[in-house]
Each structure stands twice: as structure tokens, then as C-alpha cells.
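Bumping with the actual sequence this time:
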Amino acid sequence: MLKRFFILMAILAVICLGGFIVYSIAYGVGETAGYGNGYSVGHEAGYSLGGQDGYDEGYDLGKEEGYSTGYTSGKTDGYQEGMEAGLGHGYILRDPTYAQAVAFIRDDRTNENEYVEGTYGVYVCSHFARDVCNSAEGKGLRCAFVEIRYPDSGHAIVAFNTIDEGLVYFDAVTDERVRPVVGKRYYQCIEPRPGYYYAPSSFDDTIMDILVIW
């Protein structure tokens, strides 16, 4: 009787052990399959639900940041290019030293042009002054067109705002330096070239006003 009991218990133990092993194997297989299926389905569903929203959000954020960065950078570069283009010469004009102004006037050949009078002036002092200003700009120098007003007429010269001697004037027709003073006659304000001198003009060249135009 006791022997049958132990045999029965052994059989039950084997059955239980076998059941546990089968359960463990089945659980492992089921867990793997369930994870795989669940991940696949969940990934697809999650992308479907969140993918478009995430893409839209990322696109909007990227667009906003890109616009902001691009706008700032573009505005800076565009402003600089616009300044240069607006000035019309592509570089910044500079005020020369006195020596540089003298060297420019000496090397410039505008004074060699022919002075031609006419009803309104074919090529007179104002044309000389204009051409000197344009020539100076071509060298990157800031040059002023200066109108000297007499009681009944006037004269045009040029000027440079030098960085070491301040405002200096030159007669564009003769290249001579001029020190114009209101109330003084123009011929008295010219520093003649060596060997030259100026007699009083046949007309009243008293300086009434000095208009400097940059």
C-alpha cells in the first residue's frame, strides 16, 4: 500500500514537472510572439497618430528658426550691399590727409582741359570742379563742390576735408590752393603758383558767400 502511494506521488511529480516545462516554453514563445506583434502594431499605430503631428511640429519649428536665422543674416548682408549699391561706387569714400589731397590735385589732369566760354558756359569753372570731384571719387576720396558767390556772379572750386589740416580749397581750373574768406576779394585768396601773381579782377569778385556741397 505504501509502495503504491510513492509510485503515485512520483507519477504526479513527473506530470507536474512536465506541465511546468511545457508552460515555461509556451510562455516564452507566447511572450516573444506577443511582443513582436504588439511592437509592430503599436509602432504603426503610434507613427500614424503621432508621426504627422510630430513632422508638422518639427517642420514649423525648423521653418521658424530657419526664417529667423536667415532673416537676420540676410538683413545684415543685404543692408551692407544696399549701402554700397545706393552710394553708387561700391566703396566708402574717405577724407584724405593734406599731402594726399595735394598729390591728387597734382596728378589729376582736369586742369589741362580747355576753358570754353559761351552763353551758358560750354566748359567753364563749374565743369572743371565737377570733373575734379568725379575724378576724386574714382580714387576713393571725398571731394566737395564749392560755390563761391560774388555780388553779380560766382565761381566754382573744390575742397577736401583733410584729416590733419581740416577743410582745404583748390581752384579746379589752375590747381592752386585757395583760402576763401567772406568779404575778401577772391583774387586775394589764391596762393599763386611760383612765378605767378594775380592783379585785381576787372569785375567785383568780393566773396559774399561760400557754399560747400558734399
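The C-alpha cells above came from a reply further down the thread. Helices lie at 2-87, 98-107, 125-138.
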